[in-house]
Amino acid sequence: QENSFEQFIINYCNEKLQQIFIELTLKEEQEEYIREGIEWTHIEYFNNAIICDLIENNQTGILAMLDEECLRPGTVTDDTFLEKLNQVCATHQHFESRMSKCSRFLNDTSLPHSCFRIQHYAGKVMYQVEGFVDKNNDLLYRDLSQAMWKASHSLIKALFPEGNPAKINLKRPPTAGSQFKASVATLMKNLQTKNPNYIRCIKPNDKKAAHIFNDALVCHQVRYLGLLENVRVRRAGYAFRQAYEPCLERYKMLCKQTWPHWRGPARTGVEVLFNELEIPEEEFSFGRSKIFIRNPRTLFKLEDLRKQRLEDLATLIEKIYRGWKCRTRFLLMKKSQIVISSWYRRYA
């Protein structure tokens, strides 16, 4: 019920993870249709980049203003930090405080004086500003780092590399918020170089008990995890896509014209294959480099046909092998019989 600086930076990280989820799923999904020349009706979805900018913007972001309050001379308190937020973020549509312009120049009585509220992608969260400045300014000063680096224990020395006299930096140590922001940026950079698969976990109840399903809790999670937009994009688009070459290689045994070898372009081979299987035209589309299949049941049908065809091919191989083996054995026995007969006749 009470959220302070710790929960604020955790929610900031969640916003960044949600942003990369949007970019790697919804945004990339729709951009791929455009790249491949597929007819597509754009699906609107909420992009939380505006919330991330509210928090991390280098000039007007909440973390930047918090650092500015921590570093400026004079009397600095949590209240002066909140006043600064009211001045800079007053018109932001996702920021609310008792005196912000989002409350239409009226005091918002639902907010205490020492709080502000952010409209996150998952819903509104109210933060107590008490302790923000002190927690952000929780620094490990240079002399302490140097003292720990001089320890004889190798592990302690390794934990404080900034205490090495050869690496003395006269700059003020970074604040907790700026360190966390840098760590999140590194995490995002690392994730963007990967091809992640997402598993969304839904809690059926708050009691961690079996056989209890709370409809309201589940619906809330589905909404704030962005699953509704994801489902809308998936249902409006195509469930499966694959480059022509691997698609033809996987399913070419289903068509006599493409099996065992197809000599022409891969796209033409896929067209011949789908025409031979009489798959309805509305179930697939040909992109510039990929085949797009709309419904999962079409893919399941292809997989079932492939499975049956592999069984038939396995039976055919087994039949030919058994025939070859029996014929080889028969010819060997025939040859042996002739040798035995010739020797017997010569003996007789």
Structural account:
Belongs to the TRAFAC class myosin-kinesin ATPase superfamily. Myosin family. GO terms for molecular function: actin filament binding; ATP binding; calmodulin binding; microfilament motor activity. Keywords: Actin-binding, ATP-binding, Calmodulin-binding, Motor protein, Myosin, Nucleotide-binding, Repeat. One of its GO terms (cellular component) is brush border. This protein is mostly helical and 348 residues long. The chain folds into three domains: 5-138 and 174-193, Methane Monooxygenase Hydroxylase, Chain G, domain 1, CATH 1.20.58.530; 143-169, no CATH class; 244-347, Alpha-Beta Plaits. Helices cover 54% and strands 7% of the residues. The strands form two sheets. The chain has a three-stranded antiparallel β-sheet with strand order 1-2-3, covered by helices on one side. A hairpin with a 2-residue loop joins strand 2 (115-120) and strand 3. Helix 3 packs across helix 4 (78-88). The longest helix has 52 residues, at 296-347. It is elongated.
